[in-house]
Structures are given as structure tokens and as C-alpha cells.
Request: fold
Amino acid sequence: MSITILGIETSCDETGIAVVRDGELLADVTATSMDEYARYGGIIPEIASRAHLQTMVPTLDAALDKAGVTLGEIDAVAVTAGPGLIGSLTVGVSAAKALALALDKPLYGINHIIGHLCVDELVDGPFPDHFIGLVVSGGHSSILRVGNIATDVEELGGTLDDAAGEAFDKVGRLLGLPYPGGPHIDRLSKEGDREAIRFPRGLTAGKDKVRHAYDFSFSGLKTAVARYVEGLESRGEEVPTADVAAGFSEAINDVLTMKALNACETFGYDTLVVGGGFSANSRLRELAAERAAERGITVRIPPIRYCTDNGAMVASLGWELVRNGVEPSGLGITVDTGMDLNKIVMTAV
Ligand code: KG4
Ligand code: ZN
Reply:
């Protein structure tokens, strides 16, 4: 019997709606309010929530149209229940509840971060029995151990302060680059010498190396970059922005790839799956591929459009939950801005 899942994503600034049928992506449509934030230098949650309200129905119509599927053919509705911005999440979950109720179909409130990994299955095929997941975005930098993605996910570690994308955005601001700084630093760093300035690698030495084997800390690095730039400016010297971007990018990607691949080796897993908006970073892709090859590990990273927030990641995890017979969330669920990464699907209280 064929199963068709509708996936709805609204955790941040993207309204993403997708249709997955039997593990195959039929449509994935995204609307974003990102263009509105350049002048503020950051996302304004209230604007994002209102944008979701405006784009929800047109995006849904476009996705169904593209998939050639009617609402009556949907077997289950999956929606991001957390983590994310409270207003944004609420719009998506409310829409999903309304659809599930009207269609009399099960509702699954899924974990956005686990969705970032699950989308790779739509692109690169079925997952192995177990793998290590690295999810890096504007809000998260986490290492997860994954068995069956519908039932067995464990958070091994994460950032103690800034997420990788967040650190890039903050350093972007420091270097006078437009918001969001991540892609700009990525581009600039290709013109710089990554060995010219060595910035600190947090939680990689001494006791921290053991106690925080899978944790990250990027705020010290961000401060080191700020001090370096301020020092040059106070002496009236020119800031070598490309070298700063390259050195900073290297410090972050060195730690991300090293810790994720260490996790693969410790658990004896031969696959690393990378997801989240920051996995668009070119140096992360390069370094992960290089280092994984040296250790005989396979790296799976979906194409960039599936790394940023989208509906396909939600529909993909929804499909896994349905086919593994996981109990639906029910209409009583709320949203959870800080949803625990060990929790794959939300349960009603
Ligand atoms: O997953 P995502 O779309 O939204 C969140 O859930 O946070 O990730 C967005 C983050 C932003 O911080 C952005 O600057 C960063 O990903 N990003 C990049 C690149 N492309 C996007 N960071 C570094 N290099 C890139 N090429
Ligand atoms: Zn995300």
C-alpha cells in the first residue's frame, strides 16, 4: 500500500512544504522571509511569524500542485514541533493540526534537527544500520548517534555557547559583511591563506578533550577574532579580511570534522551524515571528505538546497515514523522551542 506524507516546516524564517510518497520526494516548495532581515542584521521573530501566516496556504497549494496530489490523498501530516522560534513553530503546528483534523489523518510533531539528517535519505538512498550525524546550522552544532532514525537517536554532544553558523554570522558582522555573514565568509575565505593566522580551537586540549569529546565552544574563537581585528585597527593597520575569514573558517571546520569523525571511530561506524544550513560551507565539505577518506569513512551531505530549512526534511522523517509504526503525536501537542535532541517525535502531555 502506498503512503503519502505532507511535511510542514516553519521553525525559523523558511515556510517549507513537501510531499513524500513511499520514500520518494514528489514536491518541495519553500518561501523565505530572509530578504527582510538584511537591514536588521538578524531575524526578527515577529516578522518571521507573520510571513509564515501569509505564505502557508500559497506554499501548500504550490507543493500539492507540483506533486500532483490532492489533500484527500494525504495519509499523514508531519510538522516541525521544535526546536525553533516559538511564533514560527506555532504557525506551522497550528496549520498541521487543522489539516490533520480536517482530513482525519494522523499528526506527527517531529524534531527539526533530526529532520536535517533524515532528508539525506531522499537524496542518497537508505541509511546504513547506524551512523554518526553532524547537524550544523545557525542555531545548532550537534553530534548525534543514530540507529534507526525513527526510534533510536542519541545526542552525544553539542555547542556550549554559539552554533557554527551563528559564530560565522557574528564574525561576518565584525568584518563588515552583510547578514547573514556565513556565505560571505565562506566566499571570502577562499581568497585568503588559512595558515596565515591560527585562531584557537575550543575544547580540543587537556581535560576538555576527554570531558567534552563531542562538545563545541566557539565563543572564545569569536573573541579571539574580535581582539585580532581591534588590535590591527587601533594601530591603524589594514585588516587582512580574507586571511581572517580563512583562519577563522579553518578553526571551526577543523574542530567540527575532527570531533564528528572521532565519534565514528569510537563507535565503529563507517558513515557520517552531515546536515543543517552551515553544511553549505565549502571548506566543511572539503575537509570532511578529505579526512573521512583518510579514515575509510563515507560522508553523506545532501545538496545545499536540502541543507537549509525545507519541508522535505520533515516529510522524510514523517515517512520513517509511519513506516516504522511509531505512534502519532495526536492533536494535543504544543511546540517546544528547546526540543530535546534525544526526542524524535513529540508526544501530547
Ligand atoms: O539550518 P539553517 O538554514 O537555519 C537554522 O536552522 O539555523 O542555517 C542557517 C545558517 C546561518 O547562520 C548561515 O549564515 C549559515 O547557516 N550558512 C553558512 C553558509 N551558508 C549558510 N555558513 C557558512 N558557510 C556557508 N556557505
Ligand atoms: Zn535548520
Notes: The chain has a mean pLDDT of 97. The two ends are 32 Å apart (CA to CA).
